[in-house]
């Protein structure tokens, strides 16, 4: 599967590492070349400096062949904008978008984007720890 990830922060780099180790074709974008230091030395994918809201950058990243586009930057607005471009301009079938604000996340999901809110996910995880209920484990080798 060809996956393009916008944002090489902790989440984007970890996702890129996981998917790369599972054998997927991964391209990761970031506006800051220093961000790619988070990728492991054995990363086989591509790292491309550029903004995922720029259509020329997306074309260089191979957006026309992408099966999945993930927007995982720190900015909700940039994530939504890039997700909309991937979905509506380039017709990427699966677009996943990180949105910190739970209210906006729900709105964008209702508008057809596949979204998740780390704010909600984190709160659910912490709630499970507080209540002593089972917390999903991270499989070995994916860390």
Protein model, in words:
39% of the residues lie in helices and 19% in strands. With 143 residues, the protein is an alpha/beta fold. The chain is globular, with a radius of gyration of 15 Å. It has one domain: 3-Layer(aba) Sandwich (Rossmann fold). The chain has a six-stranded parallel β-sheet, sandwiched between helices.
Provide a short characterization of the protein structure.
This protein has 143 residues and is of the alpha/beta class. The protein has 5 helices and 6 strands, in the order E-H-E-E-H-E-H-E-H-E-H.
Question: Can you tell me the CATH architecture?
Answer: 3-Layer(aba) Sandwich
Per CATH, the class reads: Alpha Beta
Q: CATH H-level name... which superfamily?
A: NAD(P)-binding Rossmann-like Domain
Report the principal-axis shape: globular
Helical segment tally? 5
Low-confidence stretches: none
Q: What is the share of helical residues?
A: 25-40%
Overall domain count: 1
| H-E string | EHEEHEHEHEH
List keywords for this structure.
single chain, 143 residues, alpha/beta, Rossmann fold, six-stranded parallel sheet, 19% strand, globular
Layout of secondary structure:
Elements: E1 2-6, H1 10-21, E2 25-30, E3 46-49, H2 55-61, E4 68-71, H3 76-89, E5 94-98, H4 102-110, E6 114-116, H5 118-131
Parallel strand pairs: 1-2, 1-4, 2-3, 4-5, 5-6
């Amino acid at each position: 599967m060809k996956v393009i990830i916008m944002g090489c922060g902790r989440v984007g780099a970890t996702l890129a590492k996981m998917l790369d180790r599972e054998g997927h074709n991964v391209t990761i974008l970031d506006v800051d070349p220093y961000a790619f230091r988070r990728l492991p030395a054995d990363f086989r994918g591509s790292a491309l400096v550029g903004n995922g809201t720029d259509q020329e950058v997306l074309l260089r990243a191979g957006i026309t062949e992408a099966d999945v586009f993930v927007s995982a930057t720190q900015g909700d607005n940039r994530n939504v904008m890039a997700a909309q471009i991937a979905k509506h301009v380039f017709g990427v079938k699966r677009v996943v978008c990180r949105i910190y604000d739970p209210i906006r996340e729900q709105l964008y999901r209702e508008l057809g984007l596949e979204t998740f809110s780390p704010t909600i996910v984190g709160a659910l995880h912490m709630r499970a720890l507080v209540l002593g209920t089972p917390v999903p484990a991270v499989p070995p080798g994916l860390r």
